[in-house]
Write a sequence for this structure.
C-alpha cells in the first residue's frame, strides 16, 4: 500500500490492485476506473451502513439519481460527483471524467458555483474544487425546503380562489373511455368506492383488483359501507386466491354463473360504472369500453337489476373450496 499527499488530502493506492481509497468518510471501490466506471461506493461509517444497500453500498446510478432529486441537472450531477472523486481539477479534466461536453463544462461549473457546490481557484488555467458533499447537499436541501414552504403557501392561496362557482352542481351525462389498459377503469372504481356511504355492488369475472381499489375497499369497510361482490364464474384454481382476498377482508361474495356479462359497479344508488369487453371470451389483450354515469333513470335501472342479481346468486363459502395446491395433490 502506497501513501501520499495530494491537494492536502491523504490518499492510499494499493500497489497490486490499483484500488483507490479516500481516507475520509467513504472509500471508492474501483478497479482501474474513474467515477463513471464505479460500480459501488461503500460507507466507512458504521452508523450509516444499512441506509444504502443491504451491504452498505450505493451504486453510481443511485448517487446520480439522488443528486438529481436534490435539484441538479444530469450534467450538474455528473460534473459534481466526478469532481468530488478526482479532487481539484481543470475544466478539461472534469469534462473528460464526467462525460459533460467540453462546450458545456464551463456553463455547468458556473451553475454549480451559483449553487455553492463548487469553488474556483483564480489562476491560469483556472482550477475548480468541489465543496464537501456534507456541506453542499445540506445547503441545497435547505434551499429546496424554503422553496417548498413558499410553494405550499402559494398553493393555499390558489386553492382559495380556484373553486367552482356552483359547488353543488353535478355534471350529468355519461363518461366513456376506450382502450386496452385496465388502470383507468379500476381508478374510476376506486373513486366511486371512496365516495360511497351506504352500499356498493360489484360484478366481476375473476375477482381482479388493483392497489388503489384494494385501499378504497379497506376504507369503505371501515366507514361501515356494505360491499357485495358477485362473481361471474365459480371459484377455481385460477381465481381462488383473488376471491379469497375479498372473503378474508370481510366482503360478502356470491356467484352468479354467466358466460357473458358486463362488469358493473353500483354505489349508493347514485352512480354506476360499466365495462363492456369487445371479446368477452379473451382473458388478456382485448379492447373494452368503460361507461360511468350519475343519470338518475339509468342508475335506478342498473341498481335494481344488480340487487335482483345478488338475491338470485349463490353464496360462496370459501372454506368449502379446495385451494389450488390441495386440488393438484388430489
Amino acid at each position: 500500500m502506497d501513501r501520499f499527499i495530494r491537494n492536502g488530502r491523504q490518499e492510499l493506492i494499493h500497489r497490486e490492485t490499483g484500488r483507490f481509497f479516500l481516507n475520509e468518510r467513504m472509500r471508492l471501490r474501483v478497479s482501474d476506473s474513474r467515477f463513471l466506471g464505479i460500480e459501488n461506493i461503500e460507507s466507512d461509517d458504521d452508523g450509516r451502513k444499512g441506509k444504502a444497500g443491504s451491504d452498505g453500498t450505493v451504486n453510481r446510478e443511485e448517487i446520480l439519481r439522488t443528486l438529481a432529486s436534490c435539484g441538479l441537472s444530469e450534467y450538474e450531477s455528473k460534473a459534481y460527483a466526478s469532481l468530488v472523486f478526482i479532487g481539484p481539477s481543470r475544466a478539461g479534466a472534469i469534462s473528460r471524467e464526467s462525460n459533460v461536453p467540453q462546450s458545456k463544462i464551463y456553463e455547468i461549473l458556473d451553475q454549480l458555483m451559483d449553487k455553492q457546490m463548487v469553488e474556483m481557484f483564480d489562476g491560469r488555467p483556472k482550477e475548480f474544487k468541489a465543496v464537501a458533499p456534507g456541506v453542499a447537499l445540506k445547503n441545497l436541501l435547505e434551499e429546496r425546503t424554503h422553496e417548498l414552504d413558499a410553494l405550499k403557501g402559494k398553493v393555499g392561496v390558489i386553492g382559495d380562489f380556484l373553486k367552482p362557482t356552483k359547488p353543488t352542481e353535478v355534471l350529468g351525462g355519461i363518461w366513456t373511455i376506450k382502450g386496452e389498459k385496465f388502470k383507468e377503469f379500476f381508478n374510476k372504481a376506486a373513486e366511486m368506492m371512496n365516495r360511497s356511504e351506504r352500499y356498493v355492488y360489484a360484478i366481476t369475472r375473476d375477482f381482479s383488483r388493483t392497489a388503489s381499489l384494494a385501499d378504497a375497499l379497506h376504507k369503505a369497510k371501515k366507514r361501515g359501507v356494505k360491499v357485495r361482490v358477485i362473481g361471474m364464474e365459480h371459484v377455481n384454481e385460477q381465481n381462488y386466491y383473488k376471491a379469497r382476498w375479498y372473503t378474508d377482508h370481510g366482503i360478502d361474495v356470491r356467484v352468479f354463473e354467466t358466460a357473458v356479462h358486463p362488469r358493473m359497479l353500483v354505489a349508493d344508488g347514485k352512480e354506476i360504472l360499466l365495462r363492456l369487453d369487445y371479446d368477452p371470451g379473451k382473458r388478456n389483450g382485448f379492447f373494452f369500453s368503460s361507461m360511468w354515469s350519475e343519470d338518475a333513470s339509468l342508475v335506478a335501472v342498473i341498481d335494481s337489476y344488480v340487487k335482483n342479481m345478488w338475491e338470485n346468486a349463490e353464496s360462496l363459502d370459501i372454506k368449502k373450496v379446495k385451494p389450488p395446491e390441495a386440488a393438484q395433490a388430489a
Q: What stands out?
A: Residues 1-33, 42-52, 167-171 have pLDDT under 50 and may be disordered. The domain at 2-136 is CATH 1.10.10.10 (Arc Repressor Mutant, subunit A).
